[in-house]
């Protein structure tokens, strides 16, 4: 009777560990990182690029473009052309940097949350079953 109980406990432990290691880590790495990557990519474009980065880029680009254009007009260079080019360059750079940073951080955070909340729990559940 004791041998059967020990064998059953060992099999439960092995099943739980195998379920956690195999299923948990597979779900963690495959689903967690995939969802994190998708959310990070969407966040990069929607929030980082279009909302935050684009707005900051336009404000910074307008200010820098206006300043450079004003200085260029004193040097008898076309202020509108120079100001517009510099403004567009600042918009693009700021949007890219802010969007990349926000997308990377949010994607990393979401992937770890999915990994911890879904992957490991599902692995324990499958191993236990």
UniProtKB/TrEMBL annotation:
Membrane-crossing residue ranges in chain numbering: 20-39, 46-71, 77-98, 105-126
Keywords: Membrane, Transmembrane, Transmembrane helix
Keyword Transmembrane helix assigned: yes
Name of the protein this chain belongs to: Uncharacterized protein
UniProt organism field: Elysia chlorotica (Eastern emerald elysia)
